[in-house]
Amino acid sequence: MTAPNTAVVDMAALFDRARRASRGLARADRNSALLAIADAVLANQETILTANRQDVDTETAKGTPQALIDRLSLSPKRLEGMAEGVRQLATLPDPLHRVLDGMMLENGLAVRQVTVPFGVIGMIYESRPNVTVDAATLALKAGSAAVLRGSANALNSNRVLVQVMREAINAYVPADAVQLVDSTDRKYVTELLEARGKVDLVIPRGGASLINHVVDNAKVPVIETGTGNCHVFVDSSADVKRAQSIIVNAKVQRPGVCNAAETLLVHQDVAEQFLPHALQALADEGVTLRGCERTQKIVDVEPANESDWETEYLDYTLAVKVVDSLEDAIDHINDYGTQHSESIVTESIANARKFQDEVDAAAVYVNASTRFTDGFVFGFGAEIGISTQKLHARGPMGLAQIVTYKYLIDGDGQIRE
Amino acid sequence: MTAPNTAVVDMAALFDRARRASRGLARADRNSALLAIADAVLANQETILTANRQDVDTETAKGTPQALIDRLSLSPKRLEGMAEGVRQLATLPDPLHRVLDGMMLENGLAVRQVTVPFGVIGMIYESRPNVTVDAATLALKAGSAAVLRGSANALNSNRVLVQVMREAINAYVPADAVQLVDSTDRKYVTELLEARGKVDLVIPRGGASLINHVVDNAKVPVIETGTGNCHVFVDSSADVKRAQSIIVNAKVQRPGVCNAAETLLVHQDVAEQFLPHALQALADEGVTLRGCERTQKIVDVEPANESDWETEYLDYTLAVKVVDSLEDAIDHINDYGTQHSESIVTESIANARKFQDEVDAAAVYVNASTRFTDGFVFGFGAEIGISTQKLHARGPMGLAQIVTYKYLIDGDGQIRE
């Protein structure tokens, strides 16, 4: 049985509860609250899996594709992974109360710039119920209350997970630090996006249409995450064996993620040498290739059209284009990329430098796979998403990016002349 | 004669020119371009003042209040001040190319987090033509192209200032790094606010209605600036002489700016001792007082109502409220403030700490005037505004806040396992 999706939610009251709950979090025992969540997820395994089975059965009956069912499904092993992730989060250094900068002004005012929580963070996301726990615990570690709005098809799972978390944290922090928008009515998404002064930040996680909806409609500050139309450019001086290993890895190691490569760009001087072997290796991995006219003259591939350059396939498909020059590669990437992760394979120090200088993206690689753009890989210990905007945070967002700061200024009667 | 305000502007072409112009700015001789602007503002003094006189005459004929005319008016002295400000900007350290962080991952990837320009920054502002030069030169120093949209009543001034700047910089950077939206048609504001992917950041500067319009309608990232409903709270343990000097300074030293105080909160235990003298001192400075019922019982003031607690007067008016406790003061500030600058006057270390902990604002003062929240005072050397949001930058925004970063990752063939 699917949960009713027409529940009435008093969002104003929900935001007020979140605000009140958020006030003491910076000084509360947030790590104990996190450990309590980890324990509770395991202790309530049966309840969680039963609720999840309802969601899975509903989707299966609807004929939802297996890949999506997989993303929705929880298992004892996945719950163990979730609990372990939360335990690791508890061991990370506190991102709050850090003095980022400080100085004494000439008039004797002592200024400190100190990290503080955002306050109330809204998360709007799709499908995977593990995001419910990820988002709530990351917000909590960073001292903010979380307002969660997951997708309709995971509502039973999310409802139970939130209930389990709320009961678990209540000994340490207010339960209202974690709240679910318990309805699938989209008007509540709109209320969340328009809650200026009530919600300090909204982070969407999901596909391009979700992200676009949020960015286009939000009146609260937003961090755009996750769409990745990433490129690997094989320069004329590239070590072709290395280039082949990098594009194969960037495409197939995990095709469904945002830092996977979607287009291969190849310098014309190396195309005839590189393409036949490399594209065969990709085809051997099950990759469907769509090439520009020049690519088609060298190897037998499907024709690519304009929309291929713009597409984030998230699948075993790769667009291939032969370019005249490094400059053309940079222009193509800046025109079609989503400013996520871009890589050049080259032996030329000048070309490597020019590429890193001029490609406008969060992460610009030389001689490496694009797949490394990830908060865990970067050593952040956790990640709430990959920002593809330039405001506030760019690239992987760890705990240090989920806080803000304020200035504390101590005087002894200073007035301005 | 007023300029025609129905000119057709091809915004898409304008954005493209700005993007192209922005590409080389990080490595261009931006400081020479700034010095050329300073020289050109003085060399073209007559042309600029003539254009400004048209704007001033038009507004005078319309019966515009003198205070607004003053803000619109340029003079040889003001132009000298503008030129001097630009020269100082040229001497500041480059905010670009700074390595903020860096590490070697276990797999040998060398990661650097390096400051880079936003790219194209839009500025929407009111009245004062000096903002045209401020905004363009700050953006230029930070390596970004500026798209400027000033107010209708300064269009002649802005047009000439932009023309002077474009000619001045052309020897060092593309003239299109500084562009004016040469129309007062508001549809171009909408196009600017919706230019996702074309404009990387919009910063509004002006009154609350301008800021609200921008925040409510923007699809590009925005930094909310400048509205300041700031408070001074006189705690029960306050040194009352110090408290009086601070509230007088915070209110009257420059009432029309965002970090001026708008409401005085007084602990009930000290109200009878403090208010008569302090309010007399404020009245002597020409301040009109609006008090809560308890204030009215102590001194003869106009009654304050709910809207007074919400109002940023920007004038010689002050709301006054007696509160029961420190907690009530903090609640009042968090309910009505705009998260700009807040001050407590106290001798209690515990109360000072609690106030700084719990007041949610960009700058939280102990025993000092709110008037110090300012990029120049903080030693930033320049300022593009005071952020009242929590995303990206909070409080005074200097050059370090007008840049973003990217990760540069150098490998030798790394692929993800």
Provide tags for this entry.
homodimer; alpha/beta; Aldehyde Dehydrogenase, Chain A, domain 1; Aldehyde Dehydrogenase, Chain A, domain 2; 7-stranded parallel beta sheet; 15 helices; 16 strands; globular
| Helical stretch tally of chain A | 15
Question: Which structural category fits the helices and strands of chain A?
Answer: alpha/beta
**Average pLDDT of chain A, to the nearest integer?**
95
Specify the biggest β-sheet of chain A.
7 strands, parallel
| Greatest interface and its participating residue counts | A-B, 65 and 65 residues
Radius of gyration of chain A: 24 Å
Query: What's the total count of β strands of chain A?
Result: 16
CATH class of the largest domain in chain A: Alpha Beta
**Spatial sequence of strands, sheet with the most strands of chain A:** 10-9-11-8-7-12-13
- The helix content of chain A, as a percent range, equals 40-55%
Residue ranges of chain A: pLDDT <50 for 5 or more in a row?
none
Task: Summarize the structure in short.
The structure is a homodimer of 417-residue chains. Chain A is an alpha/beta fold and 417 residues long.
Report on this model:
The structure is a homodimer of 417-residue chains. Chain A contains 15 helices and 16 strands. By secondary structure, chain A is of the alpha/beta class. The longest helix of chain A has 18 residues, at 45-62. The first copy, chain A, has helices at residues 11-22, 30-43, 45-62, 66-72, 76-91, 130-141, 155-169, 187-193, 208-217, 240-252, 268-284, 293-298, 306-310, 326-336, 349-358; strands at 99-104, 110-117, 120-125, 145-149, 178-180, 201-205, 230-234, 261-267, 288-291, 302-303, 317-323, 341-345, 363-368, 385-387, 395-397, 403-414. Chain A has two domains: 11-224 and 395-409, Aldehyde Dehydrogenase, Chain A, domain 1; 230-372, 3-Layer(aba) Sandwich (Aldehyde Dehydrogenase, Chain A, domain 2), CATH 3.40.309.10. The first copy, chain A, has a seven-stranded parallel β-sheet, with helices on both faces. In chain A, helix 2 (30-43) runs antiparallel to helix 5 (76-91), helix 5 packs parallel to helix 6 (130-141) and helix 10 packs across helix 11 (268-284). At the A-B interface, helix 10, helix 15, strand 13 and strand 16 of A face helix 10, helix 15, strand 13 and strand 16 of B.
